[in-house]
Amino acid sequence: MKTLSTIVFILIYHLGFGQISDSNNVQQEFTDIELALKQPDKVLRLNLSNQTLKLDGINWSKFVNLEYLSLKNDHLRELPKELNALSKLKTLELSGNDFSVLPEDFWKLTSLEEIFLNDEKNLNLEANIKIMSKMPSLRILHLENDNLNSIPNTISSLKYLEFLYLNNNKFIEVPKEIKQLEHLQFLDIRDNKIVNPDRSGENLNFGFMIKL
C-alpha cells in the first residue's frame, strides 16, 4: 500500500503531467490546418477541435516537432493512418468522434504518452487495447463517458500505464482486471454506479490511488 507521501507526490505529478508544454509552446498553438502547413516545423501544438475537416492528403510527416494534436468533436468515422508519422507526438485528443478502432499502424507513435478516447460511443475497447499495447510510452488513458460496464482482461497488456480515467461510465464495482496493471498509480472512477465504494476500492488492496 502506498504511503501518504507517495500519494501526495502522485497527485502533484499528475497535475503537471499532460501539461508539459511551457508558456512559449502554448502561444504556438495552431487552430487552422492550412496555416499550420505553411510552417509545419514550427508547430508544437495543433488544435483542430470542433471542426469539419477533410484530412485526406495531408502530409503529416511535415510536422516534425508536433507534440500535441487535438481532433476532438470532429465526428471522424476513421482516422488517417498517416498520423503514425508524428514521431514526437506526446498527447493525442480524439474524444467525441465516431470511429471504433484506431489504425493498426498507430503503434508507430512511439513517443505518445497520453491518449483521449472518451465520449466514444462506438469504441471497440478490446481492439484498441491490442493496438495501444504496442505503444511503449503510453502512460495516460482516458475512457470517460464511453458507456463501459466492464474491462477486458487484455487491459493487462498496457504494461506501462500509470493513470486511467473511467469516470462517467456504468461500472458497479472497481474492475478487478485493473489490478493487473503493474505500474498503475491512479484510477479515476467517479460518477459510476459503484454499489459499495469502500469495499470496491481501498479494502481490496489494489495498490494504487482510486478516486471514487
UniProtKB/TrEMBL annotation:
InterPro entries: Leu-rich_rpt, Leu-rich_rpt_typical-subtyp, LRR_dom_sf, LRR_R13L4/SHOC2-like. Residues 43-123 form the Disease resistance R13L4/SHOC-2-like LRR domain. It comes from the Bacteria. Keywords: Leucine-rich repeat, Repeat. This is Leucine-rich repeat domain-containing protein.
